[in-house]
């Protein structure tokens, strides 16, 4: 029987929040300011690569929801950008604004990872713009049509004037109400706090786009560069609807995870991270280990200098326990980003998972 351990999201996220700053980019769209907030792991490892994996959250979400992917993939040498998009009321305006945002980032190669509605937005963007920078897609618990979700907005135009507490309550009702596994319960608690921080415009605009009847039809993108990930126990989007993504991309890589719920990036981060790394490597992005080693050594040296200067300046006024606390804070990210020559390949568990995926593919081809 599988033993489920808590992920300690509250504790690890607090440490992450203390170490990593949120970046902002402002755009003017239709005489209105649109502010994107995002995390960019380039600041964690001095990674100046012009290739990045960009993550889009769903209806409930902020850029914080991918913090575990930022830490894990950065330790492998990847540049990760988690985006919190501003309020857009139409899919067309979202695609326009997102295109301008990517232009300002000045990244040459982009891999898009979308969770839930974020996956639909990623497909809509690729389909609408034919952006040559997009090298691959990862779609997790996503769907190819929003027609089935119009019932979520039964009141139609009511969304435009509904109070924010009503919108939050409506969204939270979609979360599982029954007993769930410990890591999933922890992820739900984390997401409830995120929803509580959303303002009216953020909620109303996302629900409006989500419930607008639309469909991904003709899709001119190399299916072999698409990976679909589905949680078998996802609650909000029915499995039949999620599996239609695989029907849309019959030549895609398809990965199933046994548990994870609606937010597997939080409840089952190890498996999600493994699939992301495999996808990126299959699509030609495997960071150079020597470069990674130099980046991490540089980062560790800077941290050691900071620790020593902090310790010497506070030796007369700080106790040993206070100095230890400072060191812990300064070394949080570096505890996650440790280079070892033995880690040139995926670890044993990741290799086993990779073999299981290949077996599933072979069985599907035989069938």
UniProtKB/TrEMBL annotation:
Sequence segments annotated as region (Disordered): 300-367
Keyword Cytoplasm in annotation: yes
Cell compartments where the protein resides: Cytoplasm
Domain AB hydrolase-1: 52-176
Keywords in alphabetical order: Cytoplasm
Compositionally biased region (Low complexity): 308-320
Comp. bias intervals (Basic and acidic residues): 341-367
Protein name: Maspardin
